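ok posting inputs for the coenzyme A job
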Amino acid sequence: MHVRLRETADNTPPPTRTHVRLRETADNTPPPTQTHVRLREGFGHTARMIVRRERPTDRPVILDVIRAAFRKDSGEPTEVGLTQKLFDDGYLPELSLVAVTDGQIVGYVIGTVGCIGDTEAIGIGPLAVLPEFQGRGVGQALMYALIGASEALHERVLALLGEPEYYSRFGFRAGSEVGVKSPDSAWGDYFQALQLTDGPVNGEFQYAKPFDEL
Ligand SMILES: CC(C)(COP(=O)(O)OP(=O)(O)OC[C@H]1O[C@@H](n2cnc3c(N)ncnc32)[C@H](O)[C@@H]1OP(=O)(O)O)[C@@H](O)C(=O)NCCC(=O)NCCS
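and the output
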């Protein structure tokens, strides 16, 4: 798979192509996989980014990444506490992914267990990239890895609340267009869904419990 990655804004060379390799885990267990991404950052220097599953020791750094990405003027961003709760309720280890470059965690995404009626469906988010690494393809690599891992797990539907302009590039559409009703009608087209398997899906999406406590 090739992914088009963005250069930094300062010297604006054209976007380069990035090679992504999916590797088996060391003990030959089946997916989830690690995604290795080569980021070309200017001439002669190549940085490497890995998207891999979260490890328990990563958690303080993950929360720091979320804190930095969602930082507002003051106070702790809601997404930090939400993610801590999701680790206890709704958590799927295969869908808790970090992006790592030069040994540093620079991005994070989580997919948690929700439902549409009796059908399991995955709620995506928070998705967060450190401000200094934004706009360079990290979020995109995390999203593609999450979608791939969800397919490997035979998940049928992914849902999220976010910018249609950003998530449409991954195939997400307004929930109303694909038969997935929003848990809150006020969200309008910001509530989006992606169906991964054939067959009808119809009903209201329900997030994991921590989202109800927001
Ligand atoms: C939103 C976020 C996760 C995107 O990650 P990123 O690594 O900066 O994004 P990428 O480099 O993968 O972006 C790929 C493309 O999406 C675009 N894009 C990035 N953020 C966007 C946004 N909020 N709305 C619309 N387009 C966006 C980029 O301009 C780029 O477009 P191009 O390829 O056509 O030039 C990141 O900016 C972030 O952490 N923001 C703060 C937290 C947040 O808002 N999280 C999402 C909550 S739904």
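notes: The chain has one domain: 51-212. Confidence is low (pLDDT under 50) at residues 1-32.
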